[in-house]
Every structure is written in C-alpha cells, then in structure tokens.
Amino acid sequence: MAAPHHPHIVVHAPALDGSRRVTEGDVTLGLASHLDDVIEILRLADLDRVEVEESDLIDWQGGGPDDWPGLTEPEP
Asked: How far apart, in whole angstroms, are the C-alpha atoms of residue 61 and residue 73?
C-alpha cells in the first residue's frame, strides 16, 4: 500500500521586489507579496487545509512566514 501523497510546497527566497514564488514540485502556484497571498494561493490550489505558518509541508526558503524584505509599511 502506497503512503498518502502530501504536497511539498516551497515558498522561495524573496526576489528583489520582496515577492516570493510559491511552488508545488515543478508547478508554480503563484507569486506572493505577503503571507495573505500565500494563504490565498494555497486556497486556490485546494490546499487550504495546510496550516501555512506551522506546517512541515511548507519549505520556507530565505526566511519564514514573517520575512518579506523590500516590503515596508508606509511612513506616517
């Protein structure tokens, strides 16, 4: 009996603009500029049961779910 397939999601290291590519295997699921984008990309790929910030199914490269360099809050 084969083991159940678990997706292997990679949130790649940030690009120069701070965006991060999200892939499953060789398939690009989307481009995220914020953690909310990652959640939406996974929802659209029917992977919304994955706990984005805590799942061991997600490989965060170049920083974790709180690391979005190049994207800053506007100055007041």
From this structure: 23
Q: Which of 27, 49, 37 is nearest to 10 (CA)?
A: 27
Question: What would the pLDDT profile of 14-37 be if each residue is shown by its tens digit?
Answer: 998 889 999 999 999 999 999 999
DSSP state of 43: H
Contact 7, 24 (CB under 8 A): yes
Sign of CA dihedral 27, 40, 22, 54: negative
CA 56 to CA 71: how far, in whole Å?
25
Q: pTM for this one? A: 0.80
Tell me the CA distances in angstroms from 45 to 2, 5, 12, 63, one per residue in order: 23, 15, 17, 23
